Amino acid sequence: MNGRYNHIFLIVIVLLLAFRANAQDTTLHYPFTDQGSYPFSSSSLNSPLYLQNPSNINSQVTFDPLTKQYVFSETIGSWNYRNPTLMTMDEYQRYEFRQQVNQYWRMKASGGSLEDQLSFIPHIQVGGEAFDKLFGSNTINIIPSGSAELIFGFNLSKQDNPNISERLRSVPSFTFDEKIIMNVAGSIGDKMNMDISYNTEATFDFENQTKLEYSGKEDEIIKKIEAGNVNLPLPGSLISGSQSLFGLKTELQFGKLTVTSVFSQQRGESSVINVQGGAQLSEYSVTVDNYDANKHFFLSDYFRGNYNQSLARLPVITSDVSITRMEVWVTNKTTNFQNSRNLIAFHDLAEADPKSMIFSGDMSQPSKNPRNELNNAYGLLTSTYSAIRDIKNATGDLEDAGLILGIDFEKIENARLLSPREYSYNDKLGYISLNTALNTDEILAIAYEYTFRGRTYQVGELSQSSGISAPSSLILKLIKPSNFTPNSYSWPLMMKNVYSLGAYQVSQEEFTLDVLYRDDKTGNAINYLPEGNLNKTILIRLLNLDNMNSQRDPYPDGIFDFMGGITINPTNGRVFFPLLEPFGSDLAKILRDSLGGDDANRAIEKYVYQELYDSTKTKAQQIAEKNKFLIEGEYSSSNSSEIMLNAMNVPQGSVKVTAGGRELVEGQDFTVDYMLGRVTIINQGIMESGTPIRISLENQSLFNFQTKTLVGTHLDYRISDKFNLGATALHLTERPLTQKVNIGDEPISNTIWGLNGSYSTESQLITTIVDKLPFLETKAPSSLTVVGEFAQLIPGHSRAIEKEGNAYIDDFEGSETSIDLKQFSSWKLASTPRGFFPEAALNNNRSYGYGRAKMAWYQIDPLFVNSDSRTPNYIKSNPEIQSSPYVYEVYEQDIFPNKENPNGVPTRISVLNMAYYPDERGPYNYDYQR
């Protein structure tokens, strides 16, 4: 009874609560309004607060052909859920248009769903158990992206040039240009991935990447198969791997043994950078025939003759000269005429022994220092030949006096004055160094002022103090004429003992320089001459480059004497030998004084390279038996924790850094900016210790002109987590572009193999020993790591240069230059021949061309001998004109009757026609009375 009354009581309470709830206001604060009878309006509501229509509500659109209207209905079973809505044809089209616009913008707003809805290639399901087992699943997913731009065009180039035939004056051509940027990412199942990026406008090959990767599961033998852009990282330091490969790579695992193999083309180049004490070390090697030409000049024969004597007692310079002012003028090849003047330059100016016949010097003078009054040249030029101040009269007056243009003097109109930033000079030794080398046809002239034993002297005329105003010409000292050959008087003024090391801001620290000789007997470069007692003296001592120690005491120490401004210019890295001709006459004098007799003569014939100073550089370089001296060494940059790799876009993981033989850890000891090519040492202990740092890297080849094939295998046997052994074998082959290769460019075919092993373990014994040391307490267990490597290189050469490995010194293919005399454009109007016509000596005179008769040279256009539509009718209809010997086309068979034509087509020979009219005035002949 009690249980039943309890149930009734609960039911009464529920009914009372329900009645109370119904009695309350049920209006929502934000009510859900009915969407009305607009067609399918509820389907457009995307808010989750609006419930979707139940599945039993069916929405449909039908067309009533009787009323020509569209009927929108929503039904539940056979009953209408709402009243049907009717639309005319126009109303339905507007409705459909709005629906499509709304759908489009909803898709644009939802980026993720847009990719799913507009995927170019949808997911593909492949059936079959074999496919699923091979790739991990049955899904193929490919996502392409990019753009393609194709440009078509037609170009018609028309040129009214009488030098070319009528047929070639109009040249039609089609243009086709493409710009494709493509990126494809895809996967086949769970194991196969694809990543391709391609750009037709990529500057370098490495910018386009292609990679296919198959990754096996943990229990499979095949761990990884890669195709396309692959890499081969190796654990050792003796055999370095490669990060820039294109080919096939496999990684297989057989228990504890992992086998990594690669068959590919190598697209990178390896390089090594050494750093000592935070300064980057760079090596240099210069052959003695590569002196700094056309940049360094003596100011006169006086300074050249006293050069060796002034530097005989280094570090003291024995010279009474001090140059205080200088002006340097060169041929003006710019459009800037602000600091320009007309000038006449003479070689014999201020020389004790003038070369020309009209100038003479007083050899009895006790002092031969250069000055304008040293000979009579300046006096004659400013008095008897003062008319040369007018640049128009200079050439004629001086040539009439017996001087030769280009040898004795040079005339420069609007010569350019160099700023002090464009050159430097040694005020004691009397030479000038230009920042930019002069071209062969450029002229160099100077004027300067100096003090000598307390008196001031001047050579040439300084524009600021001479009192000679423009446009009058200045008289200067000629240093380099336009016709600069070994026969020129000025040839000895060019210094041939200066060498550029290719470095800037060179520091004395870590700088080394050695002069070496390639010995034919040993095949090596040695730093002495293997002759008599000279084999005990190194070459830098023999050539006066080692006279003192580091404390400037007069005791040679076998190290190059680094003296800024004397033996080296640290700013631009140029070495100055303290001898005029260190490998020529000066070396001959040393051999003669040291050996004497026939031994000296034999040594001079073998070692002295006098042609280097008496001939042009090109001619001297052809004497290979004398060109055996080298200048080699190292220089360091400024100290810094940042080290430039001299490379851009370095492949990820290709940089390895070792300090004192210990390999450093990236991110812990150093960081790498692979884009800019920069290594930053972040472990300050390494920098402060001064430990030598070695950086090996691989640089992406910008242009792959030579094919390099790399094949190899690396075995790694992991005995335990602490102990593993490895073996590596690599074979690199190069294929040359042609069968003819030069010496030094031989393609290699090298094999390298090696073994490596490492063992690492924690050592409590080391920890205990360290803890017993005073003031030391370990905070972590000690570890012991043992690493060992062995490698052997087996060199070889490619079979492309035959079994013996043939390389060419010179094949003389470019030794002949053919000049077709039939090309009328190669002939030019000549000047009046000197010596045959008296008017040839005139300058700036109309009479210069009075003797020139009329002459023409040309080639007949085939248009005038053909019979096509372009041929004029009066020629086409007149066989006599077409067969005239003046216009007749010459065929190859006319000269070689028995020669067969290729493909049976007659071969025309171009003919140079020349017409001469001796009784008519020619070009530039203004003789109106003729």
Describe, in plain words, how this protein is organized in 3D.
- The model is unreliable at 1-23 (pLDDT under 50).
- This protein has 6 domains: 2-87, no CATH class; 124-201, no CATH class; 268-281 and 638-801, no CATH class; 282-289 and 501-631, no CATH class; 297-303 and 321-491, no CATH class; 824-921, no CATH class.
- The strands form 9 sheets. A 12-stranded antiparallel beta sheet has the order 5-6-7-8-9-10-11-12-36-37-38-39. Strands 26-25-29-14-13-35-31-32 form an 8-stranded antiparallel beta sheet, with no helix packed on it. The chain has a 5-stranded mixed beta barrel with strand order 16-18-17-23-21.
- It is built from 18 helices and 43 strands.
- With 930 residues, the protein is α+β, with helices and mostly antiparallel strands.
- 15% of the residues lie in helices and 33% in strands.
Rg result: 45 Å
Give the class from helix and strand content and strand pairing.
alpha+beta
Mass-distribution shape: extended
- Percentage of β-strand residues: 25-35%
How many domains, in number, for the residues? 6
Question: How many helices?
Answer: 18
What is the count of β-strands?
43
Distance between the termini: 158 Å
The biggest sheet amounts to: 12 strands, antiparallel
Mean pLDDT, to the nearest integer, reads: 83
Q: What percent of residues adopt helix (DSSP H or I)? A: 10-25%
Q: Going across the biggest sheet, name each strand in turn.
A: 5-6-7-8-9-10-11-12-36-37-38-39
- Detail the poorly predicted runs: 1-23
